[in-house]
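Hey,
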Amino acid sequence: MNRKSRWFVWSCCLALLLFVAAVSLAADVEPKVGQSVGNVKFPKPASDEEAKYLGLDKAAEFTLKDIKAPYVLVEQFSTTCPHCLHQAPIMNQLYNLVEQDAALKGKIKFMGLGQGNDANAVKMWKAFQKIPFPQIADSKSTFGDALNFHPYPVSVLLDKSGKILWVHIGTFESADEALKGIKAVAK
């Protein structure tokens, strides 16, 4: 093998190694308790009614600090995901359980973020699934980027600083099971 051939092979190996390193650094990592999503800016809610539930003055972009509750349960979903379709009624049950619990009502606000979905798809999803809490189109996957995790469904309980206090990847077995986990950390 001549000098030019060796240089070419060595350059290709180095380029491949750099590519593999870049891909592995950019790969999604499962969210963990204690991790922070930072002061992520969420897209505007679909209506003033949804904004009011979150404690916002109007339907506009917002951060966790703008929400009038110590905790926020965020579900990252997609309107085309069969697992999310299975999860929707369970999330509705969980929301109702929290609203009926005197110790939690008002302390935890719920919102769903339709990752990669447009406003029309999320509006239809909310109506079809009869979801009582805000469902927000996150067409640019802003929350998935902040979480560094794009699969769905994933549910996280966040405090006002963006710290993850509880996380569940995939669908819940039951709303009661999820409520136990949430109650353990929402003081």
